[in-house]
TrEMBL record:
It holds the Pfam family Anth_synt_I_N. SUPFAM superfamilies: ADC synthase (SSF56322). PANTHER family: AMINOBENZOATE/ANTHRANILATE SYNTHASE (PTHR11236), ANTHRANILATE SYNTHASE COMPONENT 1 (PTHR11236:SF9). Residues 182-437 form the Chorismate-utilising enzyme C-terminal domain. This is Aminodeoxychorismate synthase component I. InterPro entries: ADC_synthase, Anth_synth_I-like, Anth_synth_I_N, Chorismate_C. Residues 150-175 are annotated as: Disordered. It comes from the Bacteria.
């Protein structure tokens, strides 16, 4: 990856008249592969501000599970192979965070493999897929500005004609849980037994709902509904012929800026949102004082300090924010922030390889937690609990934890949800919290056919 400002490749960047991202999303409808990093919610916050749409990626890299040890090398080579050739005039102000590069998806099992583990479950999700984004739209939702970036100076595609949304509902989608309440709560107690025995401090336990995919299902329309009903800072459409991810993720995994500064924002701790302001304040205050939720967040924050510390300069790792309550579309979460500065001789590919899968969806200690998770869960996680990332020509990185998402293959749709289990956890309460996280997506699928 480029190491100095003078050697950074840069595309041709042209400012266009503003139009919102949803106006250009139909460009993805007929594409064999396409990707849309779709920030929703209040644009005043940095992580909600920018969106990026690449309707025609220039190339695709896939790696099987057996080659996960080669992720950094293959990712670097793929980025370099598609980089712009010359160095045209620099991007227009303001400084654009991403003017092209690679957008990729690493599954949860890819992270397991990087840690030397193999799942007992069979997954239908590609282990690692990366798309080369040489031509893309860049949206600044805060200032309502739009750019087209092209590695070769190609003109932007024509704006799609306005099409009305279909009046008739889509085909019926009835997601079925893979475990009933009693079975999932028994798995909670199994995790607690491992904690009592001293194997782990906590583990993130998840489950999935599955719905058959009707042949007539319009995934594009389903994502339109998802982004409208569940606006999220790390929303995404990641589409290939074999697999499509529809994400409404609220959680940043890792970011790495041009000054080699790293931030990760682990989320642990959840409570509902109320329409009554006084009740809402009471819920937030209870979350701030919940010893179980605070302990869970602290353990994951410490785990992430350890993970990024593998590739950070000695003494640079810090925790500027601990236990901040943040509101999202349907819930409040406890969020912390861990920062550091990348060591010389390391890059974004090394950072990803050193930290996947995300600590917030594994547990502590991480290796043993993943072994126990694989034992007590009843299916592969696939894209759920994996990582979606963008890696720019300049070496800067941003990524999300794949939660609050729908995974689609040719045959079915899957939704996952889960939560951190500690020794004081109450199985029935954990089940209700897990259902709270899944409910907006399950309701979306249910309503789609009505």
């Amino acid at each position: 990856m480029p190491s100095s400002a003078s050697s950074l490749p840069a595309p041709h960047v042209t400012e266009l008249p503003w139009c919102p991202p949803e106006r250009l999303f139909p460009l993805c409808r007929e594409a064999e592969t396409s990707v849309f990093l779709d920030s929703g919610g209040p644009a005043e916050q940095e992580r909600h501000r920018w969106s990026f749409l690449c309707p025609r990626p220039a190339g695709r890299l896939t790696l099987p599970l057996a080659e996960m040890h080669l992720v950094p090398q293959r990712l670097r080579a793929f980025l370099a192979a598609h980089a712009p050739a010359g160095r045209p005039s620099p991007p227009l102000p303001p400084e654009l965070p991403f003017t092209g590069g690679v957008i990729g998806l690493l599954s949860y099992e890819a992270g397991m493999a990087r840690e030397g583990l193999t799942s007992r479950h069979v997954t239908d999700c590609p282990t690692f897929t990366a798309l080369a984004c040489r031509d893309l739209f860049i949206f600044d939702r805060l200032e309502q500005r739009l750019w087209w970036a092209s590695a070769d100076g190609a003109p932007p595609p024509d704006q799609p004609a306005t099409t009305a949304r279909p009046d008739s509902p889509g085909p019926s989608l009835i997601p079925v849980p893979e475990q009933d309440a009693a079975t999932w709560q028994a798995a909670v107690r199994s995790v607690q037994e491992y904690i009592a025995a001293g194997d782990i401090f906590q583990a993130n336990l998840t489950m999935r709902w599955v719905a058959p995919r009707p042949k007539t299902l319009d995934l594009h329309a389903l994502y339109d509904q998802l982004r409208t009903r569940c606006p999220a800072p790390f929303g995404a459409w990641f589409h290939t012929p074999e697999f499509t991810l529809l994400s409404a993720s609220v959680e940043r995994f890792l970011s790495l800026d041009r000054q080699r500064r790293i931030e990760t924002r682990p989320i642990k701790g959840t409570c509902p949102v109320s329409d009554d302001p006084r009740q809402n304040d009471a819920l937030k205050e209870a979350l701030r004082r919940d010893e179980k939720e605070l302990a869970e967040n602290l353990m994951i924050t410490d785990l992430m300090r350890h993970d990024i510390g593998r590739v950070c300069q000695l003494g640079s790792v810090d925790v500027p924010h601990l236990f901040t309550v943040e509101r999202f579309a349907h819930v409040h979460h406890l969020v912390s922030s861990v920062t550091g500065r990348l060591q010389k001789g390391h890059d974004a590919a090394d950072l990803l390889a050193a930290t996947i899968p995300p600590g917030s969806i594994t547990g502590a200690p991480k290796y043993r937690a993943m072994q126990i998770i694989d034992e007590v869960e009843s299916s592969a996680r696939g894209a759920y609990c994996g990582t979606l990332f963008r890696l720019g020509w300049d070496g800067a990185l941003d990524s999300s934890v794949v939660i609050r998402s729908i995974s689609a293959t040719e045959d079915h749709l899957k939704v996952g949800a889960g939560g951190g289990i500690t020794y004081p956890s109450h199985p029935e309460r954990e089940y209700k919290e897990m259902r709270l996280k899944a409910m907006p997506l399950l309701k979306l699928l249910h309503d789609h056919g009505h």
